[in-house]
């Protein structure tokens, strides 16, 4: 029966195995690398903070989010294992999809303290078809080589 199928579509079993092998190899190679390293190369603290929450809420990748955190905070994030648990326990916010914008009025204040920044982020998104808005503040510090890392989650400003 299988030989009849191969004869009808004119593909030899060896050719089929080769094509399947190539497709599997392409799939596995495309999964490698990813954007995980790109988030650690951002040199603007506002963008680091946005990328952190984007990785957590939109990409659902807690390891990627932890890659831009100070060691203590990174351990805490990785402890919860799932992005949903991190969102619920650390930030008391749940979103299916969210848009994150930094507060751009504090840029001049940040320039006065070159190796520290306090970033305010505005969240506007949906959770179970309900629209939710929130505000969070983060403290970032600049470490070796000018890399910005999230040091602390600050108390809600309101």
Topology record:
Blueprint: H1 2-9, H2 13-31, H3 36-39, H4 45-58, H5 62-66, H6 71-80, H7 83-90, E1 97-102, H8 107-112, E2 116-127, E3 130-143, E4 147-154
Antiparallel strand pairs: 1-2, 2-3, 3-4
Task: Note down, in words, how this protein is organized.
There is one protein chain. With 158 residues, this protein is of the alpha+beta class. The chain has two domains: 2-31, no CATH class; 42-154, Roll (Nuclear Transport Factor 2, Chain: A). Helix content is 47%, strand content 25%. The chain has eight helices and four strands. The protein has helices spanning 2-9, 13-31, 36-39, 45-58, 62-66, 71-80, 83-90, 107-112; strands at residues 97-102, 116-127, 130-143, 147-154. The chain has a four-stranded antiparallel β-sheet with strand order 1-2-3-4. A hairpin with a 3-residue loop joins strand 3 (130-143) and strand 4 (147-154). The protein is globular and about 70 Å long. The model is unreliable at 28-37 (pLDDT under 50).
Give short descriptive properties of this protein.
single chain, 158 residues, alpha+beta, Nuclear Transport Factor 2, Chain: A, 2 domains, four-stranded antiparallel β-sheet, 8 helices, 4 strands, 47% helix, globular
Structural class category: alpha+beta
Listing every helix as H and every strand as E from the N terminus to the C terminus, the arrangement reads HHHHHHHEHEEE
β-strand amount: 25-35%
How many strand units? Answer: 4
Strand order in the largest sheet: 1-2-3-4
The profile of the biggest β sheet is: 4 strands, antiparallel
Poorly predicted ranges:
28-37
Going by CATH, the architecture of the largest domain would be Roll
Roughly what percent helix?
40-55%
């Amino acid at each position: 029966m299988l030989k009849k199928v191969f004869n009808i579509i004119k593909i030899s079993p060896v050719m089929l195995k080769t094509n399947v092998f190539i497709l599997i190899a392409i799939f596995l190679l495309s999964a490698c690398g990813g954007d995980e390293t790109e988030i650690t190369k951002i040199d603007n603290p506002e963008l680091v903070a946005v990328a952190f929450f984007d990785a957590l809420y939109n990409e659902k990748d807690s390891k990627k989010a932890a890659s831009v955190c100070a060691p203590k905070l990174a351990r805490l994030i990785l402890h919860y294992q799932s992005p949903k648990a991190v969102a619920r326990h650390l930030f008391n916010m749940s979103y299916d999809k969210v848009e994150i914008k930094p507060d751009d009025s504090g840029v001049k204040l940040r320039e006065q303290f070159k190796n520290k920044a306090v970033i305010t982020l505005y969240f506007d998104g949906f959770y179970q078809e309900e629209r939710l808005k929130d505000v969070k503040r983060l403290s970032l510090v600049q470490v070796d080589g000018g890399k910005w890392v999230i040091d602390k989650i600050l108390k809600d400003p309101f």
